[in-house]
Design goal:
By secondary structure, the chain is α+β, with helices and mostly antiparallel strands. Helices cover about 15% and strands about 30% of the residues. Strands 1, 2, 3, 4, 5, 6, 7 and 8 form an eight-stranded antiparallel sheet that branches. The N and C termini lie far apart (about 30 Å). It binds a DNA duplex (12 and 12 nucleotides) through strand 3, strand 4 and helix 3.
Length: about 200
DNA sequence: CTGGGGATCGAG
DNA sequence: TCGATCCCCAGG
């Protein structure tokens, strides 16, 4: 189990299809400090470089920080915010197109004791329900920026084993994004309780 | 609700 | 070089 990896071509379709038909319900796996952790992706957000005011690469503007977004689909983009948290994104689309999917919540599947230790928290529902929390729980840091999720033995993705029903919602924490503030580009697994916000 | 915390990037 | 701002979270 957990050996049926997502492959390069899985990341190259329309970003919204990749989000709901490939990534939602698939498994994010990390092997950090000798510890395997696995979580099912229950919540994510789509960011589109060319037009999206909430996207780091709005207007395809490339900077040192967002450069990974311009890599080909399957690349990891990890960035640091608010002085203490990391956020993990899966880059999608072909090289040169700066689209990415922010992973917002997971349902813990394996390595739960390690997650509890890293998070200094015993409550299952609080381990991975937020983009900063899940990075902490799985040991994801900026060391993993640019990791090739199709090849890495540190951070990778495994195909989902069923087709979850998805629900579209507005994205979180982007009040500055004007007309893109309320677009329903956040997707969750219907009726799953491992979600960051109602 | 509040504020900590540090990297980032564009303005000057 | 500086400083406003940031795809958040824990604690009260």
């Amino acid at each position: 189990m957990y050996d049926s990896r997502l492959k390069k071509s899985d990341f190259l379709g329309n970003p919204f299809n990749v989000a709901t038909d490939v990534l939602l319900g698939s498994y994010l796996c990390s092997y950090v400090d000798g510890q395997l952790c696995v979580g099912k992706i229950t919540e994510l957000e789509v960011y589109i470089g060319a037009e999206d005011k909430a996207c780091h690469a709005y207007l395809n503007k490339k900077t040192v920080r967002n450069a990974p977004m311009f890599e080909a689909g399957g690349c990891a983009y990890v960035f640091f915010v608010y002085g203490m948290y990391n956020q993990f994104n899966v880059v999608v689309s072909p090289q040169g197109v700066a689209d990415a999917i922010l992973i917002r919540s997971l349902e813990p599947v394996y390595g739960i004791d390690i997650m509890k230790e890293r998070r200094k928290c015993d409550k299952l529902a609080n381990l991975t329900t937020g983009p900063g929390k899940l990075c902490q729980a799985l040991g994801i840091s900026r060391d993993h920026n640019y990791v090739d999720l199709c090849e890495s033995n540190v951070l990778w993705l495994v195909t989902r084993d069923y087709t979850p029903q998805s629900v579209a919602l507005p994205r979180v924490g982007i009040d500055y994004a004007e007309e893109y503030k309320d677009v329903p580009w956040r997707f969750i697994i219907k009726d799953n309780k491992f979600i960051s916000k109602k």
